[in-house]
Amino acid sequence: MQTLDDNDPQAVFVVILREFLVARDIEMIIRDFCSDARVVLARTLDDAMAALPSGKIRAAFIQMDAKAFSDSEFSQRVASDGGRTVLVGLDVDEAVPKGWATLRFPFVEQDVSALLAKDATPGPDQGTEAG
User: Fold this and answer.
1) Rounded-to-integer distance, Cα 70 and Cα 78, Å
2) Quick one: the chain helix, strand, coil %, rounded to 5?
3) Residue 14, C-beta contacts closer than 8 angstroms, at least 6 positions apart
4) Which residue ranges make up each domain of the chain?
5) What is the CATH number of domain 12-118?
6) DSSP secondary-structure letter at 53?
7) What pLDDT digit, counting tens, does each position of 26-85 carry?
8) Cα distance between residue 65 and residue 2, in whole Å
9) Are residues 82 and 56 in contact, defined by beta-carbon separation less than 8 angstroms?
10) Is 84 within 8 Å of 58 (Cβ atoms)?
């Protein structure tokens, strides 16, 4: 898992959400955390893939079915880049794949920041859920 100890200008973050204002909120929090980051906002996986710049994906905040995402080429790219997948606003009963994080509604800035922070990498006894 990558961390954001530095302000890496190659850092890429992807936010795939249906709600544009919520996506913009997440984008602003990411930019506060890593001002040089490149942030892609999209409503679909196809839109995100089309807009994806070069560089390693540090985190993908997604609002979609976990199984559909995990089966996608995009998910494989996030994993190969060492990025973190964050399921946003999922239903309480929805299963979360091992190693993924969650960001439930409603969330606050600190919830997103914690997922981006160095200490957000879960240890053997820590969960990956925020919010």
Assistant:
1) 10
2) 35, 20, 45
3) 39, 40, 42, 48, 52, 57, 59, 60, 61, 62, 74, 78
4) 12-118
5) 3.40.50.2300
6) P
7) 999 999 988 888 999 999 999 999 999 989 999 999 999 899 999 999 999 999 999 999
8) 24
9) yes
10) yes
